[in-house]
Amino acid sequence: MPANKKPRYERLIETTEALSEWHEAEPGLGEMLGFYRYLNLKLDADDYEEQQMASPIDFYDARETVGRRILVEMMSRHRRVDHREHWTMIGYLNELGFEVVHLDTGQGDVASRRVSIERKEDDLIPSLFDDRRLRQLSAMREEAEFSYLIVTKTYEDVKADLQQREVSSKILTSFIASLCAVGYPPIFIGDRHDASQIMHSIVSKIEDDHHRLYVPRPKGNKPSAYRDAMVEALPKVGVKTRRKLVAEFGSIAELCKASKEDLEAIEGIGKATAEQIFDCLH
To answer: Rg for the chain (alpha carbons), in Å?
Structure first.
């Protein structure tokens, strides 16, 4: 970080106007969490009283205000997992901040404001012979803007189960084709922990990010064009942020060397985004 550049949140406690403008700008959850942690460090510092006297902002009141906003934001997200889910899935998703609740038919096994996800495992094969399952999936589309089907088994394991039951694999092929036809191509993930992480990422991408369906392929063959496309593929990085990252680091190699603090020092990148970019690059 440049010697003359102040830490991101320090600027917010210099004047009441700066803090008011920050609140009015509707900061994201990641930025609010970062500021909350920063205020906690201030309150726990050995020289807390000295720092408090030098600031027009009451650190305790500021933390309480930000804490309430964080709670309201978390509650409004409605990230939920059905209480009838397998206990391991409930455990994984609970750790990721999902509420354990009762979800009605059509809401899936995992849900948020805009997303419904149905999970299948051993109950996938019974679905082959019961068209009510397809109707349930169709009902999900009425409940959420985005809906998905995740199978926590590999495709090979599902085929092996069918062979043990002496059922032709052609039935499975036909069933998957039917799922695709109604807009639910199944995602096969053989590990429940991995599945919970992907569910969390899907919800976060849709609820928190300005997601794009794809990163356009560069029209030319210049290395810089491919570099720009790769940078724009990073979480929450659009054209403006990409330009700032390229101006600061110059190349993908140098960007990979950047610390979380280096990334957070870039204007427009908060703590949560910096962590996501860092994780993608490492």
So the answer is: 23
Based on the domain organization, do 94 and 66 belong to the same domain? Answer: no
49 token code pair: 């009283």
3-state helix, strand, coil in the chain (%, to 5): 55, 10, 35
In a domain, 141, yes or no: yes
Domain boundary among the residues 35, 56, 76 is at: 76
Unique residue bearing structure tokens 């397998």: 86
Are the CB atoms for 254 and 226 separated by under 8 Å?
Answer: no
Q: Is residue 218 part of a domain?
A: no
Q: Which residues contact 17 (CB under 8 A, 6 or more apart)?
A: none
Instruction: Give the pLDDT confidence of 43-89 residue by residue, as tens digits.
Output: 999 999 999 999 999 999 999 999 999 888 777 777 899 999 999 99
Q: How many folded domains does the chain comprise?
A: 3
In a domain, 187, yes or no: yes
Cα–Cα distance measured from residue 97 to residue 91, given in angstroms and rounded to the nearest whole number: 10
**Is the pTM here over 0.85, yes or no?**
no
